[in-house]
Write a structure and sequence with these properties.
The complex is a heterodimer of chains A (320) and B (461).
Chain A lengths: L6 H26 E5 L8 E6 L3 E4 L3 E2 H20 L14 H24 L3 H6 L1 H14 L1 H4 L23 H10 L1 E5 L3 H4 L2 H14 L6 H10 L4 H4 L25 H10 L1 E5 L3 H4 L1 H16 L12 H6 L1
Antiparallel strand pairs in A: 2-3, 5-6
Helix pairs in contact in A: 1-2, 3-14, 5-14, 7-14, 9-10, 9-12
Chain B lengths: L5 E5 L1 E2 L12 H19 L4 E2 L2 E2 L1 E4 L4 E4 L2 E3 L4 H22 L2 H6 L1 H17 L2 H9 L4 H26 L5 H10 L4 H21 L1 H7 L1 H5 L10 E4 L1 H4 L21 H4 L20 H12 L7 E4 L1 H6 L3 H8 L2 H23 L3 E7 L6 E3 L3 E12 L5 E8 L5 E2 L4 E4 L3 E11 L7 E11 L6 E10 L2
Antiparallel strand pairs in B: 3-4, 5-6, 6-7, 8-9, 10-12, 11-12, 12-16, 13-15, 13-17, 14-16, 17-18
Classes of the chains: A mainly alpha (320), B alpha+beta (461).
């Protein structure tokens, strides 16, 4: 995209820059020698500048090499403007751009770390997960790219799944996780309010859903809700076991992506939910995703790396 | 009336070559002592080893400064600021007391010029011989002498450039690279750059650096007062100057107008015209004049270290010394002492362990099983020591605050580790909103090694 939509501003910059550079040269040349009238006493030891009636400036010339340095800076400026972008939209003879430099740095980093990632890429994901160095790399990648949504501890947030439990919306095998990171996922729960009937029906279904996970629910509402649950079977299946192929959550456990209260469930049914896991293949590349997937899988499947302690009872802590 | 004739004056003039004459005397010997001290320190320090590494190494690539047993990280930048402040105050103090002694005796520009002048004298001869050689037409002898001089200068300059880079890249490794000429691009650049700078500054530019490039020359006058020791010509004693007559009295003044003080001056000034900004306080003219006074059988000290007030009021040396401790000097000394003490204190109390606590921004605080409230933090643990340590994490500041994750973490030597932790409190333990908490990290093997960082725990409303 052009920096300027109007050609005028392009030339405005060019003219202003060049005038500035040449102006410095002209000023320097014109000031290197000055013509002075001799004063009455024939003295020429001053530059002729007089301030406050009688303050004069002695003529102690600057060294000539210094003047040449000034000229060299002008030549340098012109050479720079010729080689690099600086004059309006002129791209410079060398064609330098900051994005090309960034890509160069990326290439350099890839050349440096590529062999390491290539080594892991050849290995099975479970083998990679057991490698302590790969685990450390994966942890750093996770903290940089994933922690914003899933949290530093990978336990997720409302709307962003917990990655440390064994509950997976799209399946939890190492290869499925890699697939998820590479290509992203879209979870779509359509708004079902109208399909079910009215607010009352939504309320009933919500209470039925609560009973599926063994949560406290109004049994009468749940009975009515069960009749209407047929509309949900296509995705969530009978008994609400969910379907990883569609990303439909299992409703029969106590793990909730948006919250497990009757109010939240009603909102989910009425308005539907759309969640997006962005694809990372273009951004990170397959080699890094490979290490990352192994790390994420290890979060919920490796006993030695996921050293979770039982929380200290509140009373015991209070005594400390 | 004659019309005044216009005259062209040049604002830039060619440099006039200065051929400083060799002097000998108390101050010349003192300067050589400083040449030896500074250069022994400069050339030898990078070769010193400590704990299997270079004792003094500024590893810019890894952003770590190794100073004997101390490893400074970018977070310790404050010590560099302290070092600069201390250096500046030392300079101010020295200047207030004794003028430009730094310039005349210890400044690298002076020291290297002294070394290069010595080489020049060894190859081209004394002042008169050098002047004569430069006026000669080109000849094989002249070419030989000039080449020998520049080769010798180049060798010193190259070794200086190499040593300089040795402060930033391990010098033993650099030595190996010299053997095979496999410097990295930046090593090449800096070795060549610093060599060329040494050669150009000490060989060619010399007094031009002091007169036109050095900023210190320009603001030193603000540190001078009437009691500052400067190199002065005692005009009352010296004038009227003139040749010594047969009966030993001359024109009455002590100065015999031999112009030796001008010939030895490295910046080419005539000290008899009074204090000038070009004077770098090297005291070469003092040495030269004292030699002449000895020969003419007069008292030394026609040109000497003295103060403006002493010159006017005819103070004795004791009176001059008593005036040294004036308020300005006392204040400089007090501030300098204070900063040095504070820096030394901070360095000894410094813990080689740093901790940043970063609260996860994704969630305010989540409710987990049993109605407990959980917050997630990332600890950025920097083990700045040269040994690996296992650290224990402790939290405090709220009732029922507990840590759920493993409370011990190992961090390798000079490594930075990101470590996520989860903290919990019982429901209702803190007030809704943010609660101040503390996270303490202490080394298991050395409990004196600990840091405490404050953070906030957020209880959702």
């Amino acid at each position: 995209m052009a920096d300027f939509t109007n050609g005028f501003w392009d030339w405005y910059i060019v003219v202003l820059t060049l005038l500035g550079v040449f102006g410095c040269g002209v000023l320097l040349y014109s000031q290197a020698k000055v013509k002075l009238a001799k004063t009455a006493d024939g003295q020429t030891g001053t530059t002729g500048h007089v301030w406050d009636e009688d303050l004069t400036e002695l003529n102690t010339p600057m060294p000539r090499w210094w003047m040449w340095l000034f000229y060299i800076t002008i030549v340098f400026a012109l050479a720079y403007l010729f080689l690099y972008p600086g004059l309006g939209t002129y791209a410079g003879k060398l064609g330098w751009t900051s994005s090309a430099e960034y890509k160069g740095e990326l290439k350099q980093a890839d050349a440096e770390f590529g062999p390491l990632f290539a080594k892991y890429q050849k290995q099975d994901l479970k083998t990679v997960a057991a490698d302590p160095q790969a685990h450390a790399i994966g942890e750093r990648l996770f903290l940089t790219y994933c922690a914003q949504c899933h949290g530093s501890d990978a336990r997720g947030n409302k709307g962003f799944p917990n990655l440390t439990d064994n509950d997976w919306l799209f399946g939890g095998t190492p290869d499925t996780i890699k697939e998820t990171i590479l290509h992203g996922r879209v979870g779509a729960m359509p708004p079902m309010g109208a399909a079910l009937g009215g607010d009352k029906d939504v309320e009933n279904v919500a209470h039925y859903v609560l009973t599926l996970s063994g949560s406290t629910a109004d049994p009468i509402k749940a009975v009515f809700g069960k009749e209407k649950f047929g509309a949900c079977l296509a995705c969530h299946g009978a008994g609400g076991k969910g379907n990883p192929a569609l990303g439909a959550p299992n409703l029969s456990d106590k793990i909730w992506l948006f919250g497990g209260s009757a109010e939240t469930i009603k909102e989910t049914i009425t308005k539907g939910r759309t969640t997006t896991m962005p694809p990372f293949d273009d951004f990170l590349g397959e080699a890094k995703v490979h290490v990352l997937a192994a790390y994420v899988w290890s979060l919920s499947n490796s006993t030695n790396m996921n050293d979770v302690r039982q929380p200290v009872p509140a009373e015991a802590v209070a005594e400390q | 009336m004659n019309q005044p004739q216009p005259q062209v004056i040049k604002m830039y003039a060619a440099r006039e070559e200065i051929y400083p004459r060799e002097t000998d005397g108390r101050y010349a010997r003192l300067r050589w002592l400083f040449v030896w001290l500074t250069q022994l320190a400069f050339y030898c320090t990078p070769w010193l080893q400590w704990n299997g590494r270079q004792a003094l190494l500024f590893d810019l690539g890894a952003r770590k400064f190794y100073i004997v047993g101390l490893v400074l990280w970018p977070q310790d930048f404050i010590y560099l600021a302290a070092l600069l402040i201390i250096s500046a105050y030392l300079l101010f103090l020295a200047t207030a007391v004794a003028g430009r002694v730094w310039c005349g005796f210890a400044c690298p520009q002076t020291v290297y010029t002294e070394i290069f002048l010595w080489i020049e004298r060894k190859i081209e001869g004394k002042r008169s011989a050098r002047i004569a050689l430069d006026r000669q037409p080109a000849s094989l002898r002249k070419f030989g002498k000039k080449s020998a001089k520049h080769l010798a200068w180049g060798a010193v300059a190259l070794w200086t450039g190499f040593t300089f880079v040795g402060y930033f890249t391990p010098i033993t490794q650099l030595m190996g690279e010299v053997a095979t000429l496999t410097f990295g691009p930046w090593e090449w650049f800096w070795v060549v750059f610093y060599s060329v700078a040494t050669y150009g500054n000490a060989g060619w530019l010399r007094e031009q650096v002091c007169k036109y490039m050095c900023p210190y020359a320009r603001f030193q006058s603000s540190m001078f007062d009437r009691d500052t020791l400067i190199i002065t010509y005692d005009a009352k004693r010296g004038e009227p100057r003139g040749p010594l007559s047969k009966n030993g009295n001359g024109n009455g003044g002590s100065c015999i107008d031999c112009s030796l003080c001008v010939q030895v001056c490295p910046t080419g000034i005539d000290i008899r015209k009074g204090l000038q900004y070009e004077c770098i306080g090297c005291a070469a003219c003092v040495d030269a004049c004292n030699g002449v006074m000895d020969k003419t059988g007069q008292a030394r000290g026609l040109i000497r270290y003295s103060t403006e007030r002493a010159m006017e009021d005819h103070l004795t040396p004791t009176a001059i010394r008593r005036r040294t401790l004036r308020p300005r000097v006392k204040i400089y000394s007090a501030v300098l002492g204070l900063i040095m003490l504070a820096t030394a204190g901070a360095l000894t109390l410094r813990t080689p362990l740093k901790l940043d606590v970063i609260r996860d921004r994704g969630s305010m605080g989540r409710e987990v099983e049993d109605g407990m409230i959980e917050n997630v933090y990332r600890l950025q643990i920097m083990n700045t020591a040269e040994q690996a340590h296992v650290y224990k994490i402790a939290v405090s500041g709220m009732p029922t605050l507990a840590q759920v994750t493993a409370d011990q973490v190992m961090v390798e030597a000079t490594e930075t580790k990101g470590y996520p932790i989860r903290l919990r409190t019982a429901h209702g333990a803190g007030k809704p909103g943010s609660n101040k908490i503390d996270i303490t990290l202490s080394a298991v093997d050395d409990p004196s090694l600990h840091v405490k960082e404050s953070a906030v725990f957020i209880v959702p409303r």
